[in-house]
């Protein structure tokens, strides 16, 4: 899992995303690291065309395989 110091603008990453409408449903999604236009200087995940602030407990991975292994450990 990547920590916030390893992230840079334009980087493609993978996250374990929980569906906000169905909390028991999670999936692995590709996202992009970008500067948040509403919060200058703050890095965000661009996921489903929305900017999501990056938080300390976000599960961010450099590859789909890493995300899948963590997903399997946690959800299987």
Strand content: 35-45%
The CATH class label is: Mainly Beta
Strand elements, count: 5
- Helix-strand makeup class: alpha+beta
DSSP helix count?
A: 1
- Domains (count): 1
Largest β-sheet summary: 5 strands, antiparallel
**What gross morphology would you assign?**
globular
Please characterize this protein's 3D structure:
The protein is an alpha+beta fold. It has one domain (4-75): Roll (SH3 type barrels), CATH 2.30.30. The protein is built from 1 helix and 5 strands. It has one helix at 64-75, and strands at 12-18, 26-35, 43-47, 50-53, 60-61. Strands 4-3-2-1-5 form a 5-stranded antiparallel beta sheet. Strand 1 and strand 2 form a beta hairpin. The longest helix has 12 residues, at 64-75. This is Transcriptional regulator. It holds the Pfam family SplA.
Main traits of this protein?
1 helix, five-stranded antiparallel beta sheet, 5 strands, alpha+beta, globular, SH3 type barrels, 76 residues
SSE map:
Blueprint: E1 12-18, E2 26-35, E3 43-47, E4 50-53, E5 60-61, H1 64-75
Antiparallel strand pairs: 1-2, 1-5, 2-3, 3-4
Describe this structure in a few short sentences:
With 76 residues, the chain is an alpha+beta fold. It has one helix spanning 64-75, and strands at 12-18, 26-35, 43-47, 50-53, 60-61. A 5-stranded antiparallel β-sheet has the order 4-3-2-1-5.
């Amino acid at each position: 899992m990547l920590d916030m110091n390893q992230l840079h603008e334009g980087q493609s990453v993978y996250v374990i995303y929980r569906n906000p409408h169905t909390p028991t449903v999670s999936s692995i999604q590709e996202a992009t690291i970008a500067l948040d236009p509403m919060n200058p200087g703050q890095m965000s995940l661009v996921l489903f065309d929305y900017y999501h602030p990056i938080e300390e407990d976000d599960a961010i991975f450099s590859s789909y395989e890493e995300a899948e292994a963590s997903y399997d450990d946690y959800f299987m």
